[in-house]
């Protein structure tokens, strides 16, 4: 299964390999690599601390502004908005750096809701295995391992939801205490709820990303 996924994604790099117009944008608690031609995020990363993971403050998402444009990126480079997602029936606004990692602080929470920190993600995939992976970092590891570096990214082909590019796959890498763990998953309709099925070799994952984006500075 993992071998087939690796090969299928690798075969797509000739379609997506032109995503090279990247800028690095640093927000208060996370950083993104954003492609200004594709008009989509390639990588988002942050440091998950024990203090943030176990903070008593948990800001209700309903009290935070809805998804909105990123003030640090030219609005002409941002195509995702509520209108693009309306009535699509399949996709969530999938966070790269998740809201649940940032609700300890009002600024962090608001900045996590920039459209530039999201991409179309099939709803069940987003709400089940990918959510469990995010909670593995936040609830299982972070309380006992401080300063986990969390990288999440997208691989794109030519698919679009209206004008918004749809990732063909999502990946995540975490680094802590000399340990590196990695996951790679097709962005697809699925009934799978087990994030462990997506675990992969970090070296292979880096190879795939490099083939998609030869000029991209991969931060891990």
Task: Give the SSE map.
Blueprint: H1 2-11, H2 13-16, E1 22-26, E2 30-35, E3 40-48, H3 50-53, H4 82-85, E4 91-95, H5 106-111, E5 118-122, H6 123-127, H7 129-141, E6 148-161, E7 164-176, E8 179-186, E9 199-200, H8 202-212
Antiparallel strand pairs: 1-2, 2-3, 3-6, 4-5, 6-7, 7-8, 8-9
- Termini, distance in Å? 25 Å
Fill in the CATH topology.
Answer: Extracellular Endonuclease, Chain A
Individual helix count: 8
Count of DSSP E strands?
Answer: 9
User: Largest beta sheet: what is the strand line-up?
Assistant: 1-2-3-6-7-8-9
CA-based gyration radius: 16 Å
CATH architecture: 3-Layer(aba) Sandwich
Oligomeric state, counting identical vs distinct chains:
single chain
Q: In the CATH hierarchy, what is the class?
A: Alpha Beta
How would you describe the overall organization of this protein?
It is a single chain. The protein is of the alpha+beta class and 220 residues long. The chain has one domain: Extracellular Endonuclease, Chain A. It is 26% helix and 30% strand. It is built from 8 helices and 9 strands. A 7-stranded antiparallel sheet has the order 1-2-3-6-7-8-9. The longest helix has 13 residues. The protein is globular, with a radius of gyration of 16 Å. About 5% of the residues have low confidence.
Labels describing this entry:
220 residues, alpha+beta, Extracellular Endonuclease, Chain A, seven-stranded antiparallel beta sheet, two-stranded antiparallel ribbon, 8 helices, globular
Structure, briefly:
By secondary structure, the chain is of the alpha+beta class. Helices cover 26% and strands 30% of the residues. About 5% of the residues have low confidence.
């Amino acid at each position: 299964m993992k071998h087939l996924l690796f090969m299928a994604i690798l075969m797509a790099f000739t379609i997506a390999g032109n995503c090279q117009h990247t800028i690095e944008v640093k927000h208060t608690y996370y950083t993104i690599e954003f492609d200004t031609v594709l008009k989509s995020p390639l990588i988002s990363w942050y440091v998950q601390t024990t203090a943030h993971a176990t903070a008593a403050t948990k800001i209700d998402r309903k009290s935070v502004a809805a998804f909105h444009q990123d003030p640090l990126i030219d609005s002409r480079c941002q195509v995702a908005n509520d209108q693009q997602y309306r009535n699509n029936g399949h996709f969530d606004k999938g966070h790269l750096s998740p809201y649940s990692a940032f609700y300890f602080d009002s600024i962090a929470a608001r900045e996590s809701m920039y459209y530039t920190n999201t991409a179309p993600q099939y709803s069940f995939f987003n709400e089940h295995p990918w959510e469990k992976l995010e909670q593995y970092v936040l609830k299982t590891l972070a309380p006992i391992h401080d300063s986990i570096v969390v990288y999440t990214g997208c691989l794109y082909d030519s698919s679009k939801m209206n004008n918004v590019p749809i990732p063909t796959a999502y990946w995540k890498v975490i680094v802590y205490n000399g340990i590196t763990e990695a996951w790679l998953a097709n962005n697809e309709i699925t009934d799978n709820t087990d994030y462990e099925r997506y675990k992969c070799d970090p070296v292979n994952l880096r190879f795939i990303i490099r083939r998609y984006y030869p000029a991209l500075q991969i931060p891990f």
